[in-house]
Structure formats: structure tokens, C-alpha cells
């Protein structure tokens, strides 16, 4: 217990043995330092200390998990779903502990024939080993529990070998595992991951991720004694080879709630100070602040907030269940239950009211503490230790771990047993001379030596697949996918690469640059034989080479064509690739091997200073933190600055981010807003333009989304007062020592081993070149104002020689027995290269003419000298004059009676497989002709295809309007006849009362909650198509796309989304429907705010966006699509009594705002698209036409004095046009 001094002694007080013991203990605590060990385990934990004390770092041991399925179990990386039986499978975006996608499996059995359904993944593992298999499963709607197993797959069915725990319906994504020993794997048939559910048509479950790890027998036996949570912590899902990377511990002491500026706002919210906020709703809309807090399961907490009549509440972070209902009290006690996260709200709901209230609500001093006793308010105290270091160990038995530790100087170091190398284009790759038919062997020399026995370590390829460590002679290798650290010193790396992966044909030997391109992520191919990037390049003439990104493979073909000059020397990107579609994140080869001797290396980036506060502390231990990475805010349209936005690659962080903190000039910047939509990962931030400081340096600290392994962090804390003081004194002493080393301290030349001036003077006077075997390592440099020179003198001859190692490669010199005046320059081992900046002349005659670089602002009219010219950068060409197009180019100039220029642009059309296009022009009689393109096979093919495409589009239009049927195969005369015969779409306009009864804007009438609501359209059959909402009672709504005949018969119904918590409406109802596209507003659950979702004609979700506060959905009229971009017609309140017509894109960015201002929202009586490019608005006594054109984008035309009658007439006339 802390020492409590008695300071009210009286003369006649009796001193007992207890008093003396207490006094002596206090003296001891003040004089004798005491420390106790403390290990911080991965995850959340509560740590109690008696006084404020720093955590003194001890060490972190490395660990490696090797997922034998690579990244095949991560649906962010898969290009296709797992094989599915008795059901359908698709990969969809979803919330999951791993990545951002899952596999959805829906049963397709008959309603009267329930049974099992699911998916499988075949394994290829050594059955003499022990394993632990893991998976995340979510039972959406199966009445029977869902599970996975390792199973034997025979022709007669699946036979379970070992089964995981069950996952019940509605429990969310759950971790499950299987441990298995060799005696259970003695099977002769195929071994599979088997994912199983039971149900009838429509039953659904989802797979979040899955993997399998080899373990030792000792670990297998230990797992049998572990609790479930311990196994889940020790064996999380990871991709491929994963180490402990960037470990950290965050200590939150006293108050677990952060300042209000770190909470998420909804509605009109103002943070007036770090711990005071105001909600000022002016409508009955939800206005709130909320934050998610990590918690320990089954732990008591007390929440206290000063408030003036509004409410606070607590819900479960994952399940959304109410833990503390809305209460106006200033404190509330609760237990976290089985949850790891809770969400704390303050809002404008009042007690006894089901509707949010209007008013001014103030919240002060939010406080969340562990326990049941209230405490006085204190700001949150957060501190951290973190290290950017990667710590490995043997993946099976954990031997030879890297160790992160603190040096005697108080700084962190890694005692590294494992060498880790990213195998990319920066290494000096060479082709090995061993000839193989199906693969090539490449090598890198001079790496740190490895051990001499298998396994030397682990290598994984770009797909995350483990390569075979084969120390036999490389000449005996029989396939790609092998590696070794070999030769006498075991320091040369050999890797075999299959021709299928690299694209190098059986008879083709890649150059060094082409090998580097492969390790940068490019596959080589021959577009003259395979335009889709498949196949290999096996030409002997070296022509028509092409490259495609390896990460663009979709399972059938590649999506991307390198468009730069020469061989790719950077990883694929949108800048150097045409038609590029990524199907997974690019990850280079990685090698990790055991070094002959461990090495000690300093940690370059770290944070120290974790402090435990007196009382209870919440400590989070994890890995994957990135510390103070330089951010690159991107200016978007002069409105915002963006960091880590998925649509702005220049704003990306180095890794996909899970949670971001942003700093300006090393101080936390609370002006940035966090968003989880359109993020490169799960979090992005944006800042209003007015808050951006162009002079500031912005950094971010964040946790990586990619799974990593956490590790325990051991250390000590002071057990008494003297221990705390000693720890602080030591920290200050080390800080002073570090300052004395790194600060501005006067140091002499002798301190750093520098030579003095007199020593240099002596060297200049007395230095000589000596005969003999002396070796000088480095560079000989000579200088003299009037030009240095080197003389080699001999009586009959004089020579200089070039050596590499101990081998002479060539010489230069003068004199021999037959011709003493002849000068020789000789290469004895290879070719002799001569280079001149302006060319090479022999006896005055040009033997080679160097191509001349053309720089910014060049006018090609002035380039008339015969020869070769070039410009390699598009951005430079854009500044030039009289070029045929703004592409990087080579130029050849011929000069005779006149001048002819031939222009070769470097860029080829995507996938065409031909050389760059040619353009020509001539100069004669003081006149330049225009540039003209030299026609090639591409132009002829394009002409043919354009005719076919044009006929196809005409035929499609005829068919859509009820004519035909015709196709591109019909002649022009036949198409013309079909146009003349087509008098418009077919279908009856004899609309009945039953037809009109199927429509409702406010869910009233004969068919409430079941009628088409909102804008709709007539299809080519004359039937109305629109969106309706049906209710199952309570907060349970289904959205459907319905087709109604003129007689009122419901012809078809397609469920768009089911089980919604609440619907929302546009101007005319819940839906906006146009041919091939439709939008609706939905609240999917009680936690998520309204989303506007857009789907295409096949029902695929193309957009799901939370509208910003500035957007009012009931002001939105209609939807259209132009060139693949969706637009919404609406109007916007701009403050006061100002309203303007507005066109939004699908992300609610303003594409156009009208200059015409109205004074009331009721003045907008229509705003519908009468064709895909034209929106027609009816204002108060005027009509406004907003139209999009390719040349000018959105533009407007207004006409005053147009009454409601004429606006209606205009719509009717447009519909009736022939």
C-alpha cells in the first residue's frame, strides 16, 4: 500500500510496533528502490499500480507464423470464390476481422428439401506433421450451427476428420480453430477445408478468412490445455509468412474516454473545448457524438458525463445491443459482458420521447473508468511504447527468435538472428546458365551468409506461396518454385521461376532488366500471339515485347499493358499502365533465412515513455503500428485536403490503414475528419481547405490493416517511491547523454579521426606512386587549375592495364616490336564500347550519331538537321510546339531537297501488339505540310470494328424501341427499313385504376408499404418499373424492384435488400428508378446512419454512400448515368433563404450548382431527367434546363414566366414526340 504519514502525533500518544513498522517501511520505500516484473500480453488487459510509475521496457521476442495456404484464405486477394456445393458463392465487401471482403454462400436447395451446403478448399500438406487450422465464420440465417472441418474428400462425399466449434445464427463473424495430429491424417484421398451449413433455399453463411499452420508436437499438446481465447490470440489469421512487426503498447490511465474532438459527429455539433461539446439541432433529426472504446470482457465500468437535459447511452460495439439505455442521469454503471468493444453516445434524445429533440444541449467532462466507484473528472492520460522493427523466429518450434531489447544507453536494439530481404528490382539479378525447358534459374550474389543445412529459412513468392528450400545442385531442379543459399560461403541466392509466371519462353533468355521487371511485378508476353497477357515470349528477333502487371490477373487473363519506354523499372501503377485493373495488392517475393551469426542493429523509429497511472490502467498490446509517416495531403477541387483516399493514389499511406492519427508539426491536429468509406483500408481523413496550413509538415501514426502477430512485452515497474524516482533519474540521465551526443557540441578533429592541415600539406608534397604490390582501395583523384594530366613514360612502350579481381580484362598502350608508333585500346574478355555525347567519329567520319534530346518548349519546325532526336517524358512534350500529339517520342529527320520528319510515339494502343504509331510531314518551298498518321493494321481493324460497333448500337436502339429484332449482322438497307418501321416502344397506354393503385409517395392508399414509391419508368414493353418497400413488422423492411402492367398486374418482383432497420425517402418516395439503374435510401441497422445505394441493371451494388450533412435527401428528384458515372438531380439549401438546383455524383460531390437562386424549397416542383443528359427543373414560375455535353460538361439554360401548366405540357410533349 502507499505510505500514509501520521502528522498529528501528540505528546502522550503511544507508539506501537505497528507504527514503527509502518515508519520503517516508509523509510525503506524512500531509500531502497524496488521493482517488480510486469509482462504485457497481447490484447487488452487491466493493470493496477499503487503510484504513477514509468514502464521500464525489457524485451520482445520474435515469432513467425507461416500460413501454408499463402493468401488463398484472404478474400481481399482471391480472384474467385471457393468451390461451392448445393449453393452459390460470391465474394462481397463486408465487415470482417481480416481485410474488407468475405465469401457469401447461399443455399440453393429446394424449399421442401433441406440439407447441407457449403464450400471447400483443397489442401496439399505433409500428413506426418501437426497442424492448427483457423477460420472466421458468420452464420447469417442457418437454423443449424455452421462449422468447418478438415475432411477427406472422396468420390462418394466428404468425411469429417476433425471438426471446429459451432457458430450459431446471428452471432456475427466468429473465430474457430482445429488442432490435428498425424494419426488423424492417415488418409489416401484428398484433404480439404470443408465449410458447412444446413438449410433450404436462401439460407446463408459467410467465410471471413481461413488458414493452416504447421506446429510442433509440444505446441500441439500445449493447445489442448489452453483456453479458447488463448488459442485465438496465439493463432490469429495471417497472410503467408508473417512476423511480429512493429510491436506497441498503449496505456490509457484514469479516464478511458478521449477528448470530444476524437469522437464521431452526426448532425450540428460544436466542440468548444477538448472535454466540452454542444449539440444544436434545428430539426427533429438525430444529432449525436459517439466513440468506440476497447474493453475487457465481463468487466465493471462507470460512465459519468455532465449534461443539461439530453441523454447518454452505451451500446455493444459489434452487436449494437443496448447496454445503457438513453438516460439523463450524470452517471451509469454497467458490465461489458462478452464484448471487446463498446460505443458511448451523447445525443438529442430526451427521456420519454421517441423523437430527437430541437434545442441546445451541452455535455461536459465525459469520464469512463474501471470499477463501480465514481471518481472526480480527469483528462485522459495516454502514453505509448512502440517500435518499428520486424522480429522473426522459426515458424514451427519458435527457436532462434529475434529479440528487441534496451541497450545500456537506454535506446532500443534488435538482436537479429534472421536476415529478411525483400526480393525486388533493386537487387543485382542475373540469369543462371543452367538450361531448363519449363523454368529459368536466376541468382543474386554477395548476400550475408546463411546456415548450411535445410531448412535455411523461408521464401514466399508474390502470391504468398512457400517455395521449396532445396540445397541440392541447381542443375538437378525439376520445376520452378525452388530456392537455396548456396556456393562455398552459402551467400549466393538461387531461385527457379516457372515460365508461366515470368512469361519467358523456353528458348528465350531474359536480360538483367527483364529479370528485375519480373521481381517488380511484371509478366512478359508476346502480344502478337496472346493479347490477353497469357502465354510466353519466345521470339528470337527481340521484337514486339510487352509486359502486363502480375497483380492484374483475374483467374483467366491479365488486365493491363505497360505503356512506358523500354523495360519496366517501377512497380505497376496507373501512370505506367493502360487499362490497368488490380485484382489483388502487389506483394514482392520475400526471403527470410537464419544467419550464421546474429547481429545487433539499432531501431531507427520508436516511441518511449509508457507511464502507468495510479489505480486502474487499460493497456492495449498489439503490432502493426507505423510511427510518424510523412503524409501527402492531396488538394481536391480547392475544397478539401485528402489523406489515404482510395480514389487519389497520391494520398495513399505506405500500408492500408486501420486507424489513423494525424499530426501537424508534431502536434495532434483535431481538425481532420475521419471517414471509413472510400478509404485505402478502413480509415481516411479529410480537412476543409480553410484549415490547411501549407507551411506545416503533416505526419500520421496508424495501425496497418494487414494482419500481423502481436507478442508479449516484458519489463518492470517500480514497486515503491524510491523505485519510481530511480527510474525517472535514469531516464533523465540517458536523455542528457543522448543530447550530448546528438546536440551541437564542440568536437576536435582528433575526436573523429580527421587529419590536420599540416598532414595534408605533407601528403601533397611527398606523395609518390611506387612500383610493387601495394594495393590502394578506393578512387585516385587528381586536380589542377590548368588541367591535371597523367604521364606514363617508357623507353620502348608504355601501357596501362585494367583488372577486375585478379583477372586482366583489357589494356591500353603504345608500341610493339612490329609497329612502335601504334596506339592500342584492347578488350580481352568482352566487347569494346565507345561513347560520345554527340556521336563517335572515326577519322572525321561519323561512325555513330547519338540521338539528341529535345527539351521543354522545343518547336519541331526548327528541328531540321539530319539525325535522330528524342523526348522521353509526356509532360515535357506537352510544352512543345508543332508536335502531332503530346506523347513521348523519337524523331528521325531526313534532309535532301527538302526536310522530312518521321515521328514515332512511344505509347501503343492497349493490347494491340504493334510497334508505336508513325506520323510524317515534310517541309518544302518554305511550307510545312500537316502531320498525317501512317495507316497500319490497327487502323484498318479499328475501321472495320467501328462499322460493326456502330451497326450494333443502331440495332440495339431499334430493338429497345420495340422494333426489329435486328443485329449488327443486318445490312445497312435492312437497318434503315427497321428504323422507318419503328414507330416507338410497344405497350398499351390503357392505364387502369388498378394500375394507379400500385403507386404511392407516402405509403398510403389501397396497398400501403407495398406500392411503387418515387420516380419510375416505363420499359420497352410498356410496363412501369419502380421501387417499393414492404414491411415485416417493426424495424424490418424489404426493398423490391417491381414491374406493373397497365392493367395493374404485378408481373415481376426482385428483392434488392432485405431486413433493413429503416427506410428513408427522396422527393417523391423511397426510390429513383431509370432503365438499367436505380437508387434507394436505407438504414441497414440501428447503428449505421442512412446510406444512399445505387445498383445497376443486374442488381450489382455499385455505390453505397453516407450523404454529408449538407445534403437533404427529400430534395433529391432523379438519377441518370453518363459514361459510367451516376448523377442525382437535387437542390441544396445554401443558408438563409437561398436554394439552388444541384447535380451530385454518386459520392455526393457537387458536379454542378445552378446560378439561379430560389427563396424556398417549395419553389422546386420538379427536377427530372427527360433523357440521360438533360434535367428539367420547374421553379417558381420558370423552367431551368441543366444539360451535360462531352465538350462543356454541365451547363444551364433558364426561361422565366413558364407556369406549372407549360412545364407539364413540356414533359407531355417530350413523351409524345415521334
TrEMBL record:
Domain of life: Bacteria
UniProt-recorded name of the protein: Pyocin knob domain-containing protein
Natural source organism: Paenibacillus thiaminolyticus
